[in-house]
Specification:
Distance between the termini: 26 Å
Order of helices and strands: HHHHHEEEEEHEH
CATH superfamily of the largest domain: dinb family like domain
Number of domains: 2
CATH class of the largest domain: Mainly Alpha
Number of helices: 7
Structural class: alpha+beta
Number of strands: 6
Largest sheet: 6 strands, mixed
Radius of gyration: 18 Å
Helix content: 40-55%
Shape: globular
Strand order of the largest sheet: 1-4-3-2-5-6
Strand content: 5-15%
Length: about 240
């Protein structure tokens, strides 16, 4: 997916989120224990503000977060921040410099992708508070699987080693793509899938992405192979997405 596609998904899912959130802000979010719709909306507004400031300043804002004058009206604040984030994306392109937490990519393009996925997953959270969630766009969800595996999960885990991770390989397949994750005690390695694995999980793109983010149950996913490998992956993902 290209820059304009990510931005369009921020617009669509962001508008949907605002519409779903309207109503009782005290409703609990089942997929985010301890949060209400009010907490969710305020969180996303603050996330949007942070990305706007990272781009405006060229460095991460500090101190953070400030006191927001509209924090007592979180839905209005969210709508305003969403509109200003879209305006910032419209005034930029994928190569526009911006401070990000990913050293390899210091561009607005990184934030367009990240905010598309942030907004989509939290839109599902809001829908779950009101009833049944609707699927995430298949192309976006497939890219989201790549993002969570390569940006959130892959890397050095020596600060939180897992003795149960002994080099198992799990294949994740969806949307016509496949990834292999090697689970080592102090590292997670992700590569394009080659069909050699101890375990495999697959499903529709939205279901796989939401499972990786801990937003849907095992019943929406097809699991094959070693169950312990799936358990180790689930625990690592939970830590990676906290």
């Amino acid at each position: 997916m290209e820059y304009d596609g990510f931005v369009e998904n921020v617009r669509l899912d962001g508008d949907r989120l605002a519409n779903v959130a309207a109503g009782d802000l005290a409703t609990p979010i089942p997929s985010c224990p301890g949060w209400t719709v009010r907490d969710l909306v305020a969180h996303i507004a603050q996330v949007y503000e942070h990305k706007i400031e990272c781009t405006r300043l060229g460095h991460a804002p500090d101190p953070w977060p400030p006191d927001w004058p509209d924090a007592d009206q979180p839905l209005g604040w969210y709508r305003d921040a969403h509109a200003r984030l879209l305006a910032m994306f419209g005034e930029s392109d994928a190569a526009t410099p911006s401070a990000t937490w990913w050293p390899a990519d210091q561009t607005v393009g990184f934030w367009a992708r990240r905010m598309a996925h942030e907004t989509a997953v939290h839109r599902v959270d809001a829908e779950l508070a009101r009833g049944e969630a609707t699927p995430i766009d298949a192309e976006l969800a497939t890219d989201g699987v790549d993002e969570i595996l390569r940006i959130m999960l892959e890397g050095d885990w020596n600060d939180d080693p897992d003795d149960a991770a002994t080099g198992q390989r799990v294949s994740i397949e969806t949307g016509g793509r496949a990834w292999d994750v090697v689970l080592d005690r102090g590292a997670m390695t992700v590569s394009d899938g080659d069909g050699r694995s101890d375990a495999r999980l697959s499903g529709a793109p939205s279901d796989v992405l939401l499972w990786l983010w801990g937003r849907t149950g095992d019943d929406r996913i097809t699991f094959d192979g070693d169950s312990e490998t799936h358990r180790v992956l689930r625990e690592r993902l939970t830590m990676a997405t906290q």
